[in-house]
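Reopening this one. Same input as before:
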Amino acid sequence: PIVLLGAAVVGYWLAGTSLRPVEGIMDEVEAISDGRSLHRRLAVPISGDEMARLALTVNGMLARLEKSFDSLHRFTADASHELKTPLMVLRAGVERALVHPGVPAEILQSLDETLAQINQMSEMVENLLTLARADEGRAPLAVEECDLRDLIGDVAETAGMLGESAGISVTSGMPATALPMAVDRHRVREMLLNLVTNAIKYTPPGGTVGLTLAKEDGSVVFTVADSGIGIAPGDLPHIFDRFWRADPARSRTGERPGTGLGLAITKWIAEAHGGSITVQSRAGRGTVFTVRLPREARAKARAATAEPVSGTV
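Same output, byte for byte:
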């Protein structure tokens, strides 16, 4: 029995020792598989054994994946950039036709619908361009210090006008004292407008949308809560995916859905500031989006040496 026990202990130790390199490779691959670290490679053991061959094989696969992702990002950026000018020309032509005297009413209606489609396509192209730049690390933040209360007030005013036309009450809350922080004011405003616009879109008339700002454990917390229709449990894991769109029948009016990029942009803006965004929702009870940004401006160093956001691709 003692010999068997000793053999079992030795066997367990040998198995653990032999599997340790495999576990190391698994940990490294898991860290790389987030899609943002494909430039990393596994360390190749000098032993030249099966572990070295496995590491070389995985590195080759990562190199091919990185090349494919880079090609996809470049294509998205190039295609988006090339589409901007034709869309601008189309918009200008339609706008001129709309103000031309003597245009029949039915033609004006068709032109209005065409202009709405062009504007939606232009928005999608701009969002694709932004995400492509972000994927390549070429969408820096224009960081400057501002009072976040002013930002909340600005967004709340715009949301109030949108809510009024939809029969929805919009409220806001913020600290009584100034809350200065270094952020990209334009991007944070875009992030909050995306959230409140979605909230209004999926809240029935008579409902409420609340926008709040608070300090919490070294962070600032933005919250957008609504009393709307909520998000189906099966949809929650996908709402930040690019081109994901809810069923238009679930919106307040069944109106034409958006581009499916707004929440992806929102998530990128939060993470670019070193923060995070979470969502809680119950069908028929409403939805709460929470954005937490660390008060130390992690984005400032990133923006200091990068090209302006308005630069070309």
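So the earlier flakiness isn't reproducible anymore. For the record, The helical segments are 2-32, 50-98, 105-135, 148-166, 185-201, 262-272, 299-304.
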